[in-house]
């Protein structure tokens, strides 16, 4: 059994399935002072990030750099528009936008997902021939814990948030997952 204090996920408890819940609770109670100390240390080291308000001047990550956001009112349109132009994120918002922050956030995420889908598939195409493999399906989607994975069917999955990292990291993850395809036929299992 193990207890982990993770900066992003908090306290994680791992135990075999056959350990009774009462035993797990007892161990956690016995470790409570240790847990509180470590949670306090994490707060000192890594303060919780302030959520974006999606206002002009804030910065958004893209391909390893942070770019300023410029929000402008668009009186003619009913929908939020996002584009990346001349080193800036430009968001056009309707004047009467309800749930402004959420609407802009959702549109920015949609923009990231579209770019991630384009860029990652472009990088897969660039490296698959050099490695000598052909993935079955390439998907970009929301993944909680992984940057990429390779299934036993030869499907590659990539986290859309990868588009925020530098291109060298994107390439590393793409090549890493493509390399699994070389060894996939021998083992018959999936990789991450």
Description:
With 192 residues, the chain is an alpha/beta fold. It has three domains: 2-45, no CATH class; 59-112, no CATH class; 115-187, 2-Layer Sandwich (Zincin-like), CATH 3.30.2010. Helix content is 40%, strand content 23%. The chain has four helices and nine strands, in the order ββααββββαβββα. It has helices at 21-30, 32-45, 100-131, 167-187, and strands at residues 2-6, 10-14, 59-62, 65-73, 81-85, 88-93, 138-141, 148-150, 156-159. The strands form three sheets. Strands 3-4-6-5 form a four-stranded mixed sheet, covered by helices on one side. It has a three-stranded mixed sheet with strand order 7-9-8, covered by helices on one side. A hairpin with a 3-residue loop joins β1 (2-6) and β2 (10-14). α3 (100-131) crosses α4. The mean pLDDT is 88.
